[in-house]
Design brief:
Helices cover 44% and strands 13% of the residues. The protein is α/β, with parallel strands linked by helices. Strand 6, helix 9 and strand 7 form a beta-alpha-beta unit. The chain binds 3-methyl-2-oxobutanoic acid.
């Protein structure tokens, strides 16, 4: 597979080819996604919920995402790698945004950044970052970093007026230079309207079938969590069950002494064994 770029991703929308995006936070997983032909990897701030034990993405730091993005990029995947800019790492000032987005590329090895929000403040920051030569993916609809302001994980753009606000945000983000756009937790019709209005690819999560591509948090679609079951997450595997079965079998074999067996152990050659025991074996009476 040839490496994906902002150019090839944009071309996919023009050609009507659906874009496949998943999150990843480590090198082995990134290598698997690359092998399976996934188009884009998002090193999401969802690493906070998925790996770091946080209840939201708010506590995730720039260093956290850079650390995981660097691991993903060390796998040299053919997928296009996007580093998710965490809470308040880009909204304080244009200088802060430029510096931190630059670090995501330099130290995190990402090829683009994702910035949440469609307000004028964010649109201006997107323009500044794009002008500096850093590709930006936008993110509108439910933006988890604004969860307290939005009043919880609620469906956005549910009325025609609210949908129109999202369409306008998408248009402004495209004008500011975003190369693509995540749309999260909105009715299918709202996502369809946005997708038909903008020329850049839209990537949906909980946004129905009409987006140009789809993204899911890998840990959710693999079925690693029992207590997190939003309607839009389809479990494509039950990896939690696989892990539980493997751990149960390992524990059983360790406890009964059948692991490690000969196949998984190393032997000294006979002469050395004799010498070893000749020296150390207690004398028999
Ligand atoms: O952090 C993340 O994984 C995301 C996706 C849900 C789009 O932002």
């Amino acid at each position: 597979m040839t490496r994906k770029t902002t150019y090839s991703i944009r071309l996919m929308k023009k050609k009507g080819k659906k874009i496949v995006m998943l999150t990843a936070y480590d090198a082995p997983t990134a290598a698997i996604l690359s092998e399976m032909g996934v188009d884009m990897i998002l090193v999401g701030d969802s690493v906070g919920n998925s790996l770091l034990g946080y209840e939201s993405t708010i506590p995730v730091t720039l260093d956290d995402v850079i650390h995981h993005s660097a691991a993903v990029s060390r796998a040299r995947p053919d997928c296009f790698v996007i580093g998710d800019m965490p809470f308040m790492s880009y909204k304080v000032s244009a200088e802060q945004a430029l510096e931190n987005c630059g670090l995501m590329l330099q130290e995190g090895g990402a090829e683009a950044v994702k910035l949440e929000g469609g307000t004028d403040l964010v649109v201006d920051i997107v323009r500044t970052v794009v002008d500096a030569g850093i590709p930006v993916m936008g993110h509108i609809g439910l933006t988890p970093q604004s969860i307290y302001q939005l009043g919880g994980y609620r469906i956005q753009g549910r009325t025609a007026d609210l949908a129109e606000v999202l369409v306008q945000q998408a248009v402004k983000l495209e004008e500011a230079g975003a190369f693509s756009l995540v749309i999260e937790l909105v009715p299918s019709e709202t996502a369809k309207m946005i997708t038909e209005t903008v020329g850049i690819p839209t990537i949906g999560i909980g946004a129905g079938p009409y987006c140009d591509g789809q993204v899911l948090v890998l840990w959710d679609m693999l079925g690693l969590f029992e207590d997190f079951k939003p309607k839009f997450v389809k479990k494509f595997a039950n990896v939690r069950e696989l892990i539980k079965n493997a751990v149960a079998e390992y524990s059983k074999e360790v406890r009964e002494g059948s692991f490690p067996d000969e196949e998984h152990s190393f032997e000294m050659d006979e002469e050395e064994t004799g010498r070893l025991y000749g020296r150390t074996k207690p004398k028999e009476d």
